[in-house]
Design a protein that fits this description.
By secondary structure, this protein is α+β, with helices and mostly antiparallel strands. The protein has eight helices and ten strands. The protein has a single domain (2-217), classed as 3-Layer(aba) Sandwich (Aminopeptidase), CATH 3.40.630.30. An eight-stranded mixed sheet has the order 1-2-3-4-6-7-10-8. The protein starts with a strand and ends with a helix.
Length: 218
């Protein structure tokens, strides 16, 4: 693991960073399977993925993503996130959207697409706050992406998640005049009807605004 940030806690040390070993990658995909398929039942996996116990889609299989994890030193991966670098992004795959000028990327003139952002420390009996660790991983990820020249990003989130973020005044913005595409007609490894059965909204963030938010929380 390429460690980007370390934090002590009563049971040891949390490392946040980029997975580098096959074991870390396996643990990351296995955690995603436990959350998105077993816990939330968002996706119906293919027989191959079900046998592997790892949640992967075309962006993972095609090498079109950057990954970040949270891991207790000497322990298991308990938090994950990814940034998809493909064009079109997953958000653009599922929605007809017009990207605002303010999120044009400095490096590629394209935003990334952030997703698979989860934390489940209690799965491994770690006494860590779920919300606090997922926000810390998000901050670590944005800092690294900013160094790579990525200063904004897209995402697709459920309405209840958006409302929680807005409750905390987190700087996330809804893309104007979006239209959801016919999900059933989109080629994918998953049956996405369950995920999109809940109202899902395309959003974007600007890194500078997120940094200011985190600075105000200290």
């Amino acid at each position: 693991m390429k460690v980007l940030l370390s934090q002590p806690f009563p049971e040891g040390v949390i490392d946040y960073g980029i997975p580098e070993t096959p074991e870390e990658m396996d643990q990351m995909f296995e955690l995603r399977y436990k959350v998105y398929i077993e816990e939330k039942n968002f996706f119906n996996p293919t027989e191959e993925l079900e046998k592997s116990g790892q949640e992967k889609d075309e962006y993972d299989l095609n090498g079109e993503a950057l990954y970040y994890i949270g891991k207790v030193r000497g322990g298991k991966v308990f938090a994950t996130s990814r940034a998809v670098t493909s064009t079109p992004t997953p958000t653009e795959k599922f929605f007809d959207v017009t990207l605002p000028e303010e999120i044009k990327n400095d490096a590629k003139e394209r935003p990334l697409d952030i997703g698979r952002l989860i934390s489940r420390p209690h799965f491994f009996n770690y006494t860590l706050p779920q919300r606090g660790t997922v926000l810390q991983l998000f901050q670590v990820m944005l800092t690294d992406l900013n160094k790579r020249g990525y200063t904004s990003g897209l995402g697709s989130i459920h309405k209840d998640v958006l409302e929680k973020l807005q409750k905390y005044n987190f700087p996330v913005h809804v893309l104007d005049n979006y239209v959801m595409k016919d999900v059933g007609a989109i080629e994918t490894d998953f049956d996405l009807e369950t995920f999109f059965n809940v109202e899902t909204i395309p959003v974007y963030y600007i890194s500078e605004e997120v940094y200011k938010f985190f600075a105000q929380q200290k």
